[in-house]
Amino acid sequence: MKLSKRAQNLKPSVTLAASAKAKELKAQGLDILSVTLGEPDFSTPKNIQEAAIAAIQSGKASFYTPTAGIPELRQAIVEYIEKYYGLTYTPAQTLVTDGAKFALYALFQVILDEGDEVIIPVPYWVSYAEQVSLAGGTPIFVEGLEANQFKVTVDDLEHARTTKTQAVVLNTPSNPTGMIYTKDELQAIGEWAVAHDILIVADDIYGRLVYGDAEFTPIATISEAIRQQTMIINGVSKTYSMTGWRIGFAVGNIELIKAMTDIASQATSNPTAVSQYAAVEALTGPQDSVETMRQAFEERLNKLHALVVEIPGFTCAKPQGAFYLFPNVKEALDMCGYTDVTTFTDDLLNEAHVALVTGAGFGAPENIRISYASDWDTLEETVKRIKAFVEKKRQK
Ligand SMILES: *Cc1c(COP(=O)(O)O)cnc(C)c1O
């Protein structure tokens, strides 16, 4: 069978691939520790589960919903954005999607023509680049300095800008680095985007997972002009431990939202009905479980970061949000005779039975990503194994 060029050029998600490999080895009976996935290990809070069960039993979850989402959920999104961003939108400016991932997919489908460019700061969440390519666009990678927490500046962006630049993706708090752009940094980037009519794709999915005295400023809140230039992408997966339910949303320009809805109408019809009812409860119900989970992540971050920086050859600035550490392991690679981080992570899996994600997949060939959305025992043992592995390789 012939495969399209598009399919041939598509790279599967490195994080999902690493997690699948770990599961495969586990199934063979090996004692594999996996810190690959960006997926909270908590079960979905009880009140949300119960709302879903009630929706099933009432019969209302049996049917197709409007493509853009049930009216209750679109209204809930409006109220949520009002509460956490202080911004007023109408339900018509919202779209419920099959995960935030599909919101991004639909967005790139409606803004890009063949050859149009999207600026993606490096390191980046793996799907941005592939989704841009699938839409016929060209991802333009811009590297932030690791010394500046990998954050890009307006100078970096201006360097990459051409007449074909349609959008810039901003993910703060960032997956994979956990770093957060300050309000001033965002203001500068926002004004630059407004001046050049470049759409800001604001992936705010980790906005409520912020630690210590760090603060998350959604870029859309900085000024009215910036708000108009921004498509907010968010969802329930990370905040409410609802990855499997597949509910995300987009909020912004009404013409774009309408066009994205048309894409969804031909691609998916609607996000799963029962999940939409669950998401209404997530967004409008009690929020104390969010805080409980956030605190658990923060505690793990504090303990894990202290251990990871003790591994020979690892350096790691302390993240401020999300649930990843993204240590630079260049020195460890040198010490152990590796020239390539992916060989290092492959050997870690095969020899130390630790599955984590190579930074190469995020555009950062000196780094690895450790997700701390796992229980503490797993995390502690993971660090022990990595440390022992590096120490063993180093002596050779
Ligand atoms: C997890 C993640 C998403 C997508 O989440 P969904 O489960 O599809 O809602 C989007 N962006 C980033 C940066 C993520 O880490």
From TrEMBL:
The keyword Transferase applies. SUPFAM superfamilies: PLP-dependent transferases (SSF53383). Its cofactor is pyridoxal 5'-phosphate. Pfam families: Aminotran_1_2. Residues 34-386 form the Aminotransferase class I/classII large domain. Keywords: Aminotransferase, Pyridoxal phosphate, Transferase. One of its GO terms (molecular function) is transaminase activity. Its EC number is 2.6.1.-. Signal peptide: none annotated. It comes from the Bacteria. GO terms for biological process: amino acid metabolic process. The keyword Transferase applies. Belongs to the class-I pyridoxal-phosphate-dependent aminotransferase family. This is Aminotransferase.
